[in-house]
Amino acid sequence: MRKTVYWIEGDGVGPEIWRAARPVIDAALRLESGPTLDWAELPAGEKALAETGSHLPESVLRTLSQADVAVKGPLGTPVGSGMRSLNVTLRQALDLYACIRPVRHFSGIESPVRHPERVDIVVFRENTEDVYAGIEYAAGSPEARRLLAFLREQLGATSLRGDEAAGVKPMSEYASVRLIRRALRYALDRGLGSLTLVHKGNIMKYTEGAFRRWGYELAAREFAGQTCTESDPEPGKLVVKDRIADAMFQEILLRPERHRVLAASNLNGDYLSDALAAQVGGLGLAPGVNMSDSLAFFEATHGTAPDIAGKDRANPGSLMLCGAMLLEHLGVPKAAGRIRAALEKSIAAKSVTADLATQVPGAKTVGCAAFGDIVGANL
Ligand code: NAI
Fold it and tell me: Is 35 strand, coil or helix?
């Protein structure tokens, strides 16, 4: 069996982490007799600019809009160039509405908490709405003044001075429900026991509070036989519960084992995924996927690391773990498990890239390519 996987090399450390990670992904599949991957490269970022004159050629978006799986390395956004982030463009153009980040600890990596191994959580973050919708106006600008005047005069908002910066926080039932539905299916398919809706509905009743309500309504409407609530638990059913965001940040530190899948709005989900990643020892090993209804677009969650690009110092672990997520998605979970186990074994053997060496007591530093070979050998 063969499967086409589109890939974007990415800028900065992109080429070197791909050189280290791809052989590991292919080898894991071979060992489990999975499909052979036909890797089809798509130009984006600096490479595309040199080849085609555009950072993101139209043809790439067309191909991706018809694709079901793709993987990307990091893409740079020059600061202050006025160029729109390619990541944001891809997200919007392809309607990648769910950002999914699994977070777990790899033994041997130092963490700021006493029991990082208790974290085994998948964060589902809504990717299209909320205060990230890009509807925001500078303090004192004519747009902000008009918006504030409208709020004051037409809608009776009394707490405004008139010269503030102002943004809009749109949250729809449509976008919330499709994200929560995906999280519920994920938790049910894998028998993960619970799903937590994270919100700040005590303060923002009509946006965050509605997110919570739409979540419970969805569970009762579409998953009635399979779900129950925390106050009324039923054996064998998925518990749907909710937490106010600030309490959730306490719980991921104090009792992370109580949560397996989180469904959150855009801002809460952003903070939570990075806080959880830090809790298990940093972002260096964090994979992720952005999903639409048709495309699963896996990505290394770190940036282009310009300070170490081309120096054989980057950690290819995040991209390898993206590969593991891809293989799970393609129905070869054993090959995915092999990659994770090989990475864990390599870390335990204490020959790791420079970033990990600072977090693994007694570790020896090896380059990106050598680390790739070590993980490959441990498959
Ligand atoms: P960054 O993640 O590239 O770097 C932050 C720090 O982490 C640096 O010290 C870097 O050396 C280190 N680092 C990152 N990845 C590493 C790896 N694989 N191995 C070892 N060390 C690693 O974040 P920064 O500097 O804020 O952004 C640089 C560029 O990357 C910007 O143009 C930004 O827009 C872009 N970016 C792209 C992302 C994506 O494509 N998903 C995500 C984040 C940033």
Answer: coil
Q: Which of 174, 107, 125 is nearest to 341 (CA)?
A: 107
pLDDT band for position 165 (50/70/90)?
very high
186 is catalytic: no
pTM of full prediction above 0.90: yes
Of the residues 89, 299, 304, which should be mutated to test ligand 1's pocket, given the most ligand atoms within 8 Å of the CB? 304
Q: Is 355 in the pocket of ligand 1 (CB under 6 A)?
A: yes
How far apart CA 112 and CA 126 sit, in angstroms, is 28
As a whole number of angstroms, the distance between CA 223 and CA 215 comes to 11
User: 65 C-alpha vs ligand 1 centroid, how far in Å?
Assistant: 26
Distance from C-alpha of 78 to C-alpha of 200, rounded to nearest angstrom: 34
68 is a catalytic site residue: no
| Structure-block tokens of residue 105 | 């600890």
- Given pLDDT bands bounded at 50, 70 and 90, which one contains residue 297? very high
Mutate which of 302, 315, 343, 359 for ligand 1 pocket (most atoms within 8 A of beta carbon): 302
**Separation CA 74–CA 58 (nearest Å):** 19
- Please name the residues in contact with 310: beta carbons below 8 A apart, sequence gap of 6 or more: 13, 16
Closest ligand 1 atom number to CA of residue 73 = 40
pLDDT-derived band at 78, boundaries 50, 70, 90: low
Q: Is the CB of 89 under 6 A from ligand 1?
A: no
> For ligand 1, is residue 308 a contact (CB within 6 Å)?
yes
Q: Judging by DSSP bridges, how do beta strands 98-104 and 364-365 pair with one another?
A: unpaired
Active-site residue flag, 241? no
Which range has the worst mean pLDDT, 132-141, 171-180, 304-313, 325-334? 132-141
Sort strands 227-229 and 351-352 into parallel, antiparallel or unpaired.
unpaired
